[in-house]
Amino acid sequence: MFSLDTLPYLLSACFIYILVKSQLAIINFLDRGTYTNYARYMILIEGDTVAYFQNFATPMLTYASATVYLIGFSFLLIFTFLLLMYTQNLEVLQEYTIAFVAIYLVALPFYIYVPVPVTGFTLPNVVPLLYDLSPIILQGVTIVDPFLDNCFPSLHAALSAMAMLMVFRTNLTRFKIFSLATTVAIQFTILYLGIHWITDMIGGFILASLSYFVATRYRTSILKLPERIVLTLEKRTDLVDALNSVLLSKKLIK
């Protein structure tokens, strides 16, 4: 199931995960200066339309949505990776990992320089249903989103949509149905739970599409980059060794 061929992609995903968890340290290091709240632009774009999704809120629906948001999302991402590895869909696995890394790399600068607070703490008629469920949930979320302003683009929208698109490149029929249903459910939860704006979701879809296009179109070229870097370093090392040999032969260096 596991092989050295898949190890680089797994390590890349782990690196990005650690990078996101280190967001607060990165913000402090970069000293981004005056904090600008970009929620007012979201209000100009869509008003409080997202409040509609809480018109039919019930405790059961809230708990179910929280389960999808917290567990279903993680399961979709992790199981997709493991299933692609187990079924030896290595090309799709490579594309999935490239797109996964690309989404994080593009989203992180937005979270640092264009912070958009969650709807539940911004709009007066939207309740932060997820964070009100338990202090443990709030504490867990703030580990990766210290100020609860990592809204645009939505990683839940981007990563779930990207995973679904990658699954549809395989012949895993039953998992296609599961990934489609889970992805649709995730889009509902991010709006219903008082987390994301509709604009965040659209931004996530755009990011998913772009990362999917890059990963599937340029997979071979991207995978050759590490090899090219190593070859370049080897050539430079050989050049330095040759130069040192010449200098030693002429006794210009000891």
Short description:
With 254 residues, the chain is mainly α. The chain contains 11 helices and no strands.
Mean pLDDT: 87
Question: What is the 3D shape?
Answer: globular
Structural category is mainly alpha
> Helix share of residues?
over 70%
Rg over CA atoms: 22 Å
Order of helices and strands: HHHHHHHHHHH
Low-confidence stretches: none
Tally of strands: 0
Q: Beta-sheet strand percentage?
A: under 5%
Tell me about this structure.
This protein has 254 residues and is mainly α. It contains eleven helices and no strands. The longest helix is centred in the C-terminal third of the chain and has 31 residues. It is globular, with a radius of gyration of 22 Å.
Secondary structure elements and their pairing?
Elements: H1 7-21, H2 23-30, H3 39-46, H4 59-86, H5 90-113, H6 129-133, H7 135-144, H8 155-167, H9 173-192, H10 198-217, H11 219-249
Helix pairs in contact: 1-5, 4-8, 4-9, 5-8, 5-10, 8-9, 8-10
Provide keyphrases for this structure:
254 residues, mainly alpha, 72% helix
